[in-house]
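Show me any protein, keeping tokens residue-aligned.
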Amino acid sequence: MSELGRFMEAELRSQPEIWQRVLETSTAASALPQDGERIAVIGCGTSWFGAQVFASLREGLGKGETDAFTASEFPIGRRYDRILAISRSGTTSEVAAALDALAGSTPVTSLLGVADSPIGAASTHVVELDFADERSVVQTRFGTSAIMAMRSWLGQHAELEASIADARAVLDGIDEDFTSADETLIDEGLLAAEQYSFLGMGWTWGLANEAALKLRESAQAWTESYSSMEYRHGPIAIAAPGRVSWQFGPAPEGLAAQVEATGARFEQADRDPLADLVRLHAVALMRARRLGVDPDNPRSLTRSVVLEG
């Protein structure tokens, strides 16, 4: 077993079991966003992209107006019925500052890996996913578990059971130590690409943003992310042989052919998009190890961003 990314390896391998535990965790009804509530979801990095996923899904299902903000850009003066704050550590400075600025004016539900924390203390309700917490700096299972929890709040239980099965199938196709994989899942071209553009529509746009961040953080890869429809309004100019355009979920009609006409690879899978993010996690770990970099301790990053002053 490689020492590089050994925590990330164990954590991403555990995702199907952790997701199942999320679905079996009971949460008080008063802690959950109620139908018709106008809510804002805030977070930073991976948590922000999870917020984007939930906001798109909730609005798309007609459950209520839902905005997603990176915490540093949250409009404090705007009225909401509830704030949903996401943080693995419970210490993220920008999230804590936003809740301090609210000064108790709005109910706050926080989705945390550590409940006994500044963000937990500033919240009206805490949904604790301590069993999904991680040692690796680069998040895998907490971020996906938070998305799993929020999707379950929207009643997507059948879809989530299918997602767990899909994730298990992905991981079953990868060697235990992540040295190789079934080529129908991860082949040399996918591992060795020069550049990756991740694409999504609706809720999967947030997953595309998260995929780009994951591969960039862990393996120092050149990654970008876009709304699938927006990709053709300029960014497709970067598509070329040796590069990958990776679609999460359904693609717009004609997009695959347009990408392939550039010589780039168009990657898309017929599985739940959250489970396909697990496949991206594996690519990130395998590529990082090839380059001799450690996703458990990537350069210039720490497990939680806590700003001085």
